[in-house]
Amino acid sequence: LLSQILNQWFESEPLKATLATDAVIGAMASPHTPGSGYVLLHHVMGELEGQRGAWGYVAGGMGALSQAIARAAAAQGAHIFAEKAVSHVMLGTDGRAQGVVLQDGTEVKSKLVLSNASPQITFLELIPQEQLPKDFVQRIQQVDTRSPVTKINVAVDRLPNFLAAPNACDGQPLPHHQCSIHLNCEDTNLLHQAFTEATHGHFSSRPMIELCIPSALDPGLAPQGCHVVSLFTQYTPYLLVDGQPWDEQTRNAYADTVFDCIEAYAPGFKASVIARDILTPPDIERIFGLPGGNIFHIGMSLDQLYFARPAPSYSDYRSPIPGLYLCGSGAHPGGGVMGAAGRNAARVALKDFRHL
To answer: Would you state the pLDDT for residue 247?
Structure first.
């Protein structure tokens, strides 16, 4: 249990709770859930520019990272088809992947196909089920994709002013504005209570909030004096109690709860809001194709990691379909902006390609 690990190393409850957020981030779990300690390890084991455990903002926003990858691929001769949905993977008479068919009927032929879509979309929607082993299909159907995350993007007309660290007179960002700010994390039991509410089909009355202000480091993201605020919040269940829908009224009720919490730490925040975009788990699933709204494609529980990701005997990026590889977050080692799954899958695919 993460709570046991933290208790061994630390005495300060706010410090333990703040560290615990990275153990439950994106996971339908509490700090008292068995295996939660690994999720913390997963988030701190990496490095950024030689600094272990560090995270960073992408200049120009997260989309700039995708554009950088696209430019690198194009420089090597890749052809990129944007806004072109894939209908299905083409299979030869021998069952080998031969390319993909787009929804407009265009055939893109290839000796290898790498999918960074989720395992569910890759194997349950893009491949005829009769071409896959029944036990494999059953495993993919049963993977746990529960996600507690609702993402709220906010435009504000001034920098949030926190009671604990008031803004400077000139209104310029201070060091804490340039970091991740964790709210409602004074006690690990607060996180557990928020989780428990979600397991009963209710959104948390005091949600865990990770607040970032990327424009504090990258002013080009907002007009002068204004800022963009990114709120990574949980816990919100995919299915609400009694079949209640995530309609506009419910979305706004949850967002109001989040904003009320922020207001307690930074009075005036609600009055500074110009616009907000609320993405609940069903919204994230619908817009980004992430089953259950899970940013990791599959939950990061111990039974869905390492040799079991996405299924036993298929953790080496290969699939039951020769020539088809999984290279997204649903493959080992899981989610996170690191590219490890893609790099590993590419190496396996190239090795196989040389033997064709």
So the answer is: 95
